[in-house]
């Protein structure tokens, strides 16, 4: 399921599922929470950058997100970020 307004829906659902499976023991789900936080931070940075550059919409459409992640990962690997 893709959510146009929440690019981290999968990570959010994984966090909730972990809590349910672990009797709401937050410590048992710390890795999921960290992954969700990183996802939110990443897409927030994308929004800020796109807004600064005048690109609309600030949050890219769901069908473009995988390509954006790949492009930014390749840039970071090559040291051009």
Please, could you describe this protein's structure?
The longest helix is centred in the middle third of the chain and has 23 residues, at about 30-50. The protein has one domain (about 10-80). It is built from 3 helices and no strands. Helix 1 (about 10-20) packs antiparallel against helix 2 (about 30-50). With about 80 residues, it is an all-alpha fold. The protein has helices at about 10-20, 30-50, 60-80. Helices cover about 65% and strands about 0% of the residues. The protein starts with 8 loop residues before the first helix and ends with a helix. Pfam families: COX6B. This is Coiled-coil-helix-coiled-coil-helix domain-containing protein 7. InterPro entries: COX23, COX6B-like, Cys_alpha_HP_mot_SF. Belongs to the CHCHD7 family. It is found in: Mitochondrion intermembrane space.
Largest sheet: none
Q: Compute the number of helices.
A: 3
Separation of the first and last Cα atoms:
30 Å
Oligomeric state of this protein: single chain
Unreliable stretches covering 5 or more consecutive residues: none
Strand content: under 5%
Shape: elongated
> Structural class, please?
mainly alpha
Whole-number total of structural domains? 1
List the secondary-structure elements in sequence, H or E. Answer: HHH
**Fraction of residues in helix:** 55-70%
Instruction: Estimate the mean pLDDT confidence.
Output: 92
């Amino acid at each position: 399921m893709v959510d146009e307004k929440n690019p981290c829906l999968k990570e959010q659902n994984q966090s909730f599922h972990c809590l349910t499976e672990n009797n709401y023991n937050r410590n048992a789900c710390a890795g999921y929470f960290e992954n969700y936080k990183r996802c939110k931070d990443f897409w927030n940075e994308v929004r800020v950058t796109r807004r600064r550059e005048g690109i609309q919409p600030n949050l890219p459409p769901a069908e473009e997100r995988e390509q954006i992640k790949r492009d930014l990962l390749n840039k970071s690997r090559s040291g051009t970020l």
